Amino acid sequence: MELPFREKGDELLRPGAMLDMRARLREHAKRHDLRSVAAYAFDHRTRMLPFYFVDRRMSPGGVRAIGGSFLEAGFEKTRVVLQTWKKRFQPSLMQLDGSTPDLFMTSSMWIHSGRMRDMLRDICRVDAEHRPLVIAGGPHMVYNPWDAFSSDAADPWRADVAVTGELYVLLELMDVLLTERAHGEPLRRTFLRVRDAGGLDHVPGLVYANGADGAVPEELVDTGVQRLLQDLDELPHPVHGYKVLEPAGGGATLAKHPIPTERVGKHSPIASIEMTYGCKFRCKYCPIPAYNQHQDREKSPERIADEMKRLREEYGIRFFFGSDDNFFNRHDRAQRIVETLAATTLDDGTPLRKALGWGTEATVHDTIKMKEHLRTARHGGMKALWMGVEDMTATFVKKGQSVDKTREAFHLLWRNGINPMPMLMHDDTQPLVSFRNARGLLNQVQLLRNARAMSVQVLMLSPAPGSKLYEDTYSGLAFRSVNGRPVEPHLVDGNHVVASRHKRPWIKQLNILFAYAYFYNPLRLLKALVLPKNRRGHFADAGAQIMGMCGWLQNLWRTPRWLYHLMRGGIERFEQPPASPIPFRSAAGGRAAHGLPNQTVTRTAPTPEEPARLS
Ligand code: B12
Ligand code: SF4
Q: Please, which of 283, 452, 483, 548 could form a disulfide with 533 given CB 3.0 to 4.6 Å?
């Protein structure tokens, strides 16, 4: 099920709203001392191809944006912890500037949500009187906010509030709380007071719990779908977020100081960067169009150029990955961005393209439409383009691609010095090999390699929360458990077969391993040394082969256990998507915007004192 749409015309924040909010927070910072920690949940069992070499080298944009915005507002006691680097971090032990922070935030994708729960459970060990205000956010909370609240009476950990939106929602929440906070009052106490007075209900993008501390919440309350920020230039500059990164290490507590500026680029040599949002396609397995409320959002070309330039000059970061849904979605916009980047130089006069490189995602269809401008894109520093080819024959997924169009797009990119990076999606109906057609997985891998792909991603179709297909994948397709083993979040990473009607799903699991081994292997390495696919030298292609083989060993190490369970059988499937076990309603008392259709809405009728809050 997709996220519901806000009323037409009310999808976006008014222009200037983010700038005003940032100004308000700067005023609050003059009066409030606030210590805050934002932690990115990361499950190390997900470290495999195709992300093995980037997951630890790219500090996540969400927590950086939060830490950066707090710092920029003047809340200097702020820290961003990444479990990617600091696996054993325990929030219950954290001290910042000599005392327990006022605010603890977690950010998580679905696949890392097991670690998010561990952190929430851990912070709830701090007694309620001294506990920081606990906020959960990130992609998992956008679609499954109830996961931040335990429904187990024997283990009732919980966040105080989940944020189902972006940075603006968090800043608006902070504005409400800091406006109400009495001098010296613990922030969590302010939160409980404001919540109980109904003061959060007008802030769209929140889910909070009602009920006593230390018990399972009586109900969850959803304040609705967020309004989106359209002009991304209103966001704080990303240079701030890098100033508050917690150093890597084995400890459970916080280091005295964040990573020194000169070492940031070594720890995080790749930066994700927000440039545009939105995609005109409506693929059924993708949550992105509804997430964006079918809106196009963007940063100005000048601001993008400035961000890359400053991150390069201040931290030595040399590669950027655009968090675009489809960078070429609007051709005029993409053209303006690449032209500006091509004309940008560092302060010492070095053209941007010589000082750094960047890559992003786009469709085959739009890449072909942009053929006139690919040379400029290369001059603007574009080095690689990830393309959701999914299925070259468009049998399973149709978004304007075909074998010929894919070849054409790849050739255009290669001719202009941009590496084509295909992403494939394997499904039940796709054979490993096909004869006289291109439907087979290995056939497509070979076609892509012939078309000069330097890397490949092969992911199994898995449930994607917020997509049109989500419910369908749960009606008799998605596994609840296999051979008695529950499907934990870290398994829903596209590398494990967790949704299939195939008689022998273990074959699908093997197919993914075969596909990688077929693409990355010693023979291709030798060939890459002699006849590289990359236009600019032998070593890049050979290097990609070596990295691919090392990553493949990780997959080989991590997936056989699941393969074994799949072979043993005993598959139990879901009949419907897992909804919140805790009653979940909107602030007005109806169906929660972030609830699933099979969701229980109310506990009991409101008590006589409550109607004012529910209306
Ligand atoms: C860059 C990226 C990656 C990179 C880097 C990830 C990283 N650690 O930064 C790589 C390539 C490694 C990657 C890999 C994967 N990714 Co990815 N990725 C993205 C992408 C394109 C951009 C993320 C980004 O930097 N955004 C910019 C920042 C500023 O925005 P943000 O992260 O959304 O954060 C904002 C809000 O969420 C919120 N927020 C975030 N955290 C918090 C915390 C609190 C307390 C609060 C209040 C708010 C808050 O505020 C932030 C600022 O506005 C997103 C799609 C997208 N357009 O966002 C997918 C996305 C995050 N990826 C996704 C997935 C599924 C994956 C994979 C599992 C691959 C797959 N099977 O498809 C792997 C996992 C690998 C691993 N082991 O971790 C999904 C997650 C869906 C979900 N429900 O969890 C997304 C959302 C794409 C989608 N399907 O819609 N990914
Ligand atoms: S083209 Fe990509 S971003 Fe656009 S809807 Fe399809 S999968 Fe999603």
A: 452
H or E stretch at 387? strand 382-390
Q: Ligand 2: residues whose CB is within 6 Å? A: 279, 281-283, 286, 288-289, 325-326, 363, 388, 399
441-452 burial, b for 16+ CB within 10 Å, e for fewer?
Answer: bbbbbebbbebb
Neighbours of 489 (CB within 10 A): 22
CATH code for the part of the protein at 17-222: 3.40.50
Query: Which residue bears the tokens 């967020």?
Result: 226
Please report the atom of ligand 1 found closest to the CA of residue 170: 47
Residue range 406-420: mean pLDDT, rounded? 95
* Cβ(585)–Cβ(560) below 8 Å: no
Counting from 1 in the atom list of ligand 2, the atom nearest the Cα of 289 is 5
Query: Measured from the CA of 63, which atom of ligand 1 is nearest?
Result: 41
**Pair 140, 147: CB distance under 8 Å:** yes
Classify 276 as helix, strand or coil.
strand
For the CA of 321, the closest atom of ligand 1 is: 1
The Cα 339–Cα 381 span in angstroms is 10
The string of DSSP letters for 347-372 reads TTS-BHHHH-EEEEEE-HHHHHHTGG
For the full predicted model, state whether its pTM sits above 0.90.
yes
Task: Specify the residue with its C-alpha closest to ligand 2, atom 8.
Answer: 286
Task: Give yes or no for a contact between 499 and 463, defined as CB atoms under 8 angstroms apart.
Answer: yes
- Best residue among 2, 3, 280, 281 to mutate for probing ligand 2, ranked by most atoms within 8 Å of CB: 281
Q: Up-side HSE of residue 153: CA atoms within 13 Å toward CB?
A: 1
Helix (H, G, I), strand (E, B) or coil at 169: helix
pLDDT in tens, 122-151: 999 999 999 999 999 999 999 999 999 999
Q: Decide whether any atom of ligand 1 lies within 6 Å of the 172 Cβ.
A: no
Q: Is 336 exposed, middle or buried (0-12, 13-18, 19+ CB in 10 A)?
A: middle
Distance CA 558, CA 115 (A): 18
Rounded to the nearest whole angstrom, what is the distance from the C-alpha of residue 160 to the centroid of ligand 1? 22
Identify which ligand lies nearest to the alpha carbon of 110. 1
Digit-coded pLDDT (tens) for 381-408: 999 999 999 988 877 777 777 899 999 9
pLDDT at 611: 41
User: Which ligand is located closest to the Cα atom of residue 388?
Assistant: 2
Question: How far, in Å, CA of 245 to CA of 261, rounded?
Answer: 10
138 lines ligand 1 (CB under 6 A): yes
Complete DSSP assignment for 102-119: SEEEEE--GGGHHHHHHH
Distances 400 to 410, 453, 533, 551 between C-alpha atoms, Å: 15, 19, 25, 31
**Confidence check: pLDDT of 605 > 60:** no
* Angstrom distance (rounded) from CA 413 to CA 579: 44
Ligand nearest to the CA of 144: 1
Q: Which residues contact 443 (CB under 8 A, 6 or more apart)?
A: 433, 434, 437
| Ligand 1 atom 37, closest CA | 138
* 163 C-beta closer than 6 A to ligand 1: yes
CB-based burial of residue 354 (10 Å sphere; 0-12 exposed, 13-18 middle, 19+ buried)?
Answer: exposed
